[in-house]
Design a protein that fits this description.
By secondary structure, this protein is of the alpha/beta class. The chain is built from twelve helices and twelve strands. It has a domain of 235 residues: NAD(P)-binding Rossmann-like Domain (Rossmann fold). The strands form three sheets. It has a seven-stranded parallel sheet, sandwiched between helices. Strands 7-9-11 form a three-stranded mixed sheet. β1, α1 and β2 form a beta-alpha-beta unit.
């Protein structure tokens, strides 16, 4: 199987590539723009594999994308390229619209033209797998779970752009018969995650003795999914999933943001007990700050369809996965330093200035 993976140098994309190269005999072409969150060091362990190839490029570049389809002749597209941080989308929504909506439309049209010209056997087996988020569903109350039939109700420019791309993918299936798969996942965590995200940000700030910012009261609830469990799920979907189907992928781990931060602190107290000056526990660094605009209160995934149809269940508990994740950041300070050498220095993003 020949896979074209977009955004493969990102957090989830790199996990998918590492998994696919170990668990399958696939050939992989990674197309990535290498924005601030794309880092080829996340693929250092597989960069010498003869079945792996990297191309630097933008999914919005139709000529580039068309040339890659013609040259590589993929059997599967796994579309992970996206701008993905809610706070950044609040500050600058235009990039999210360009990459997540326009880029997806370009990719769909190039892929459809390529698919139309495939021989019958290869055409029947071709798949376009679009990887999305549970944030498209909006916010839950105290009860209930997101299912694949939950109406879309996005709250941020990021989630609105992903909702738009989901609708485009499904429209290409319904209008043109184009063979698509859509997955919507809960909050990912694990190794190689860019430190604008909650868990790596807390680990690195704590080690530096910096404040650990908690938005609002910290009672926002997320369902946490280890990125390697997610990669296993995506592999299962792209090989065995039902054409035109949607699969929600969750970790069965509902935690408040404050619970997550306190758990990170507890693990650091154990693994790195030499605290910065003036504190007895890393929890002393917890600092409550103004909430994010439009902050969804609760996400929770019903992942019963992927379990029933494809037999996937997460292997990591939150406790086991979080400990491994914290340990990884402690063991990989070199990677952490490199990815922070650019414009982002763990400052808060997404603050709306009043006129």
């Amino acid at each position: 199987m020949k896979l074209l993976i977009t955004g493969g140098a990102g957090f989830i994309g790199s996990a998918v590539i590492r998994h696919m190269l170990v668990e399958t005999d696939s050939q992989i072409l990674n197309l990535d723009k290498l924005t601030y969150a794309g880092n080829l060091e996340s693929l250092a362990l597989v960069s010498g594999n003869p079945r792996y190839h990297f191309v630097h490029g933008d999914i919005c570049d139709r000529d580039k994308v068309s040339g890659l389809f013609a040259e590589f002749q993929p059997d599967v597209v796994m579309h992970l390229a996206a701008e993905s941080h809610v706070d950044r989308s609040i500050e600058g929504p235009a990039e999210f619209i360009q990459t997540n909506i326009v880029g997806t439309s370009v990719l769909l049209e190039v892929a459809r033209a390529y698919w139309n010209n495939l021989p019958a056997g290869r055409k029947a087996n071709f798949r376009f797998h679009h990887i999305s988020t549970d944030e498209v569903y909006g916010s839950l109350g105290a009860d209930g779970l997101f299912t694949e039939e939950t109406p879309y109700d996005p709250s941020s420019p990021y989630s609105a752009s992903k909702a738009s791309s989901d609708h485009l993918v499904r429209a290409w299936h319904r209008t043109y018969g184009f063979p698509v798969l859509v997955t919507n996942c809960s909050n990912n965590y694990g190794p190689y995650q860019f430190p604008e995200k909650l868990i790596p940000l807390m680990v690195l700030n704590a080690l530096d003795g910096k404040p650990l910012p908690v938005y609002g009261n910290g009672q926002q609830i997320r369902d946490w999914l280890h990125v390697e469990d997610h990669a296993r799920a995506l592999c299962r979907v792209v090989i065995e999933g039902r054409v035109g189907g949607t699969y929600n992928i969750g970790g069965h781990n509902e935690k408040t943001n404050l619970e997550v931060i306190r758990s990170v602190c507890d693990i650091l107290d154990e693994l790195r007990p030499c605290h910065p000056d003036g504190i007895a526990s890393y929890q002393d660094l917890i600092t409550f700050v103004a909430d994010r605009p439009g902050h969804d209160q609760r996400y929770a995934i019903d992942a019963s369809r992927i379990q029933a149809e494809l037999g996937w269940v997460p292997e990591e508990t939150f406790e086991s996965g979080l400990r491994k994740t914290v340990q990884w950041y402690l063991d990989n300070s070199f990677w952490c330093q490199h990815v922070q050498d650019g414009s982002y220095q763990r400052q808060r993003l997404g603050i709306i200035e009043c006129p």
